[in-house]
Amino acid sequence: MILDGKKIAAEIRGELRTEIDAIKASGQRVPKLAIVIVGHNPASETYVNNKLKACAEVGIEAVKIAYETEITEQTLLSEVHRLNNDGTIDGFIVQLPLPDHINETRILSAIDYRKDVDGLTPENVGRTVQGLPSIISATPRGIRELLARYQIQTEGRHVVVIGRSNIVGKPIAMLLMQRPYLSLPGMSAASLGDATVTICHSKTQDLGAICRTADIIIVAAGSPGLLTADMVKEGVVVIDVGINRVDGHLVGDVDFDNVAPKAAYITPVPGGVGPMTIVSLLQNTLQAALNR
């Protein structure tokens, strides 16, 4: 079965629209998101435009703040501090990647974790690891929501995560190994968590042997076709986070055509995790607004 992120994201946007309409009808201010982008990276500009469009669809007010590539790190830090202190902004993101002369860690660390709707600040990541209330990184939240909406249980199952990034690999591993009662309010009711998680990466030896023991595989390595049919067992659940452009086409980290026949569930690329990441950003923005 295809895990249709596009379909589920549309359902969630409808739910968000209803909730935000109710906020507006009650006379309260609707949530407001700011998106900071530096330079003219085509992929980043596309992502930002998609986020702005999604905000408009659910009724979130959104503003784009664009800077040229030559901006100094100090100027960008000043903008982050301004947004931290702007009472009309509920949440904001700084679109990555940033130019090489700007330290991404320094910028992310300067964001007020209560407005960090990308869930990437050390405070939010740390709180997620400890199971405390936090804003969860958008892609891991989207993955967990996708599993929940399809009622895919993780309790007692072996999850293999390929990739150890701070954006996907590490936080999704933390989420799925935690006890279900640590789930955020508003998440779907499926029993999520209590999984046995193995994290693999570029230095992992005999990756195929490890993957063949997995009930669920989450691939976020940025390597086209990395996961092949001989690396998975029958009935596996495969979540492909990879977005790679090969010969003008978008492909994932999974050899979809050959892995899909063996999988019980699998995400397509595009149309799987991508739409869930954007809708999770909207959920995080509403969460930040309700917490203000």
Protein described:
- The protein folds into two domains: 29-112, Rossmann fold; 137-274, NAD(P)-binding Rossmann-like Domain (Rossmann fold), CATH 3.40.50.
- The protein has helices spanning 5-25, 42-58, 73-84, 104-110, 122-130, 138-149, 169-177, 207-211, 256-259, 273-291, and strands spanning 32-38, 61-67, 91-94, 158-162, 196-200, 216-219, 236-240, 244-246, 249-251, 263-266.
- Helix 2 (42-58) crosses helix 10 (273-291), helix 6 (138-149) packs across helix 7 (169-177) and helix 6 packs across helix 10 (273-291).
- The longest helix is centred in the first third of the chain and has 21 residues, at 5-25.
- The chain is globular, with a radius of gyration of 19 Å.
- The chain has a five-stranded parallel β-sheet.
- It contains ten helices and ten strands.
- It has 292 residues and is an alpha/beta fold.
- Mean pLDDT is 94; it is low at 182-186.
Please provide a brief summary of the model.
It is built from ten helices and ten strands.
